[in-house]
Amino acid sequence: MSSRKETRPRHRRRITRRRALFAGAGAVLLTGGALGATAMLSTAGAASAWPTAKGSQAVSQSVEVSGTLDGGYKRYYGSGALGGGDQAEGQDPIFKLADGAVLKNVIIGSPAADGVHCMGSCTLQNVWWEDVGEDAATFKGKSASSVYTVYGGGARKASDKVLQFNGAGKLVVSKFQVSDFGKLVRSCGNCSTQYKRTIIINDVDITAPATSIVGINQNYGDTAALRNVRIHGDSGKKISPCDRFQGNNTGAEPKKIGSGPDGTYCRYTAADLIYK
Question: Which secondary-structure segment (H or E) carries 239?
Answer without folding.
Answer: none
